[in-house]
Design brief:
mainly alpha; 45% helix
Length: 116
């Protein structure tokens, strides 16, 4: 499967919510809902585990995507992902994702390096 790099640098094509959605995989939805409920200390139901990909402005998204400041900023600025932004790396990105998804920063850094 090809990469779908979200604004924050995460690969949507590896996300269980994206995979459950595109493969209509109820078992993966149930497993991910349990894992995410524990990991994020919240309540996720299997029906919450659907996502068309962060960079898509249409279709279903995991509930946090609707309020994610990094995603909202990327959409507003019309960039492919944060590596393409003139303000990269900004506080929004580092504050929200460096600790949760350190590999995402590496992806964005690589993209940024290849833009020059």
């Amino acid at each position: 499967m090809s990469k779908i790099i979200a604004f924050c640098g995460m690969n949507c094509a590896e996300c269980p919510a994206y995979l459950a959605h595109v493969n209509d995989d109820d078992d993966l939805r149930e497993k991910t809902a349990e894992e995410w409920s524990q990991m994020f200390q919240g309540t996720f139901k299997p029906e919450d585990i659907n996502c068309a990909g962060c960079v898509s402005t249409k279709g279903v998204h995991v509930r946090y995507c609707g309020e994610c400041p990094v995603r909202l900023c990327g959409i507003q600025k019309g960039v492919e992902n944060c590596a393409h932004c003139d303000e990269y790396p900004c506080e929004k990105l580092t504050k929200h994702f460096d600790k949760v998804a350190p590999g995402a920063k590496k992806t964005l850094d690589e993209i940024r390096k290849n833009l020059k």
